[in-house]
Amino acid sequence: MCGPGAPSAGSSAAPSSTTASEAAPQASASPAKDGVAILGTAGGAGGGARPCAAYSVTSQETVPFTYVVTFSFLSDSGQALGNVTETVPAVAPGRTVRGTVTASDLPGDAAGGSPRVRVVKVRGVPTAEAPVVGGTCPPSGVRVYADEGDAAMGLRVVGLHLENCGTRPYPLDGYPRVELRDEDRDRVSGVSILQGGAAVATGTGADGPPRSIVLKPGERAYATLVWRNTVASVTNEPVNAPYARVWAKPGAAPVMVTPEFDLGTTGKLGVGPWKKDEAR
Q1: Which of 129, 132, 144, 134 is nearest to 64 (CA)?
Q2: Does 6 map to a domain?
Q3: Distances in Å between the alpha carbon of 106 and those of 49, 73, 120?
Q4: Which domain holds residue 86?
């Protein structure tokens, strides 16, 4: 068992929760990063035990936040053995939630002895705007999320996906509205959001004219985001924007996704039109 023994945030049991001021002091295996601390580790010492770590997430936001945390499991020599990503949903303002993350795809003795774990990345969005892939249908009647994308020779292509999980037809006409946000979730300026991807690259799926489509319950659509990470200027700072706030259409509720935009100094993001996902 790892640390204080709280269940994993991804399990069906609810993680333990206290106010930040009530949380008992814990010996952390590493300094806190963006509100996430490693409380203790176990496993990896033979006997088939999987390396695991107990962690805590403390929110200093003013509304409930959903966090996605990437942990790296390390060998005794500091070599990265693998990453594990955990989603910690709906952490209330001023609360601390504890959970356990397990490297289930690593050999039990991969870490040699007591495993070393560090927090690689923390992304947090307001729970009311968190992307939804499955489970209960949101009040909006649609699920909106981004895929992991594809990268080759500096070209980045990420898909936005929308599923009508409601009971009524859902019309779409044109392009999703996209706003880039920095690590503090503030709006990024100086980037041109272009309709279509031809100004960035062709053949990415972001081409073609916008068309009116209607999604029946259970049907899906997608739109393609395309950019390059080229750094071609020594005077302009490269743009790195983890977040995008997305509106499927005018009047729709916004959703915050995390495609990790590394736009270099190109200053351009191409947004393709909504297209019905006929394959699904």
Answers
A1: 129
A2: no
A3: 10, 9, 18
A4: 16-127
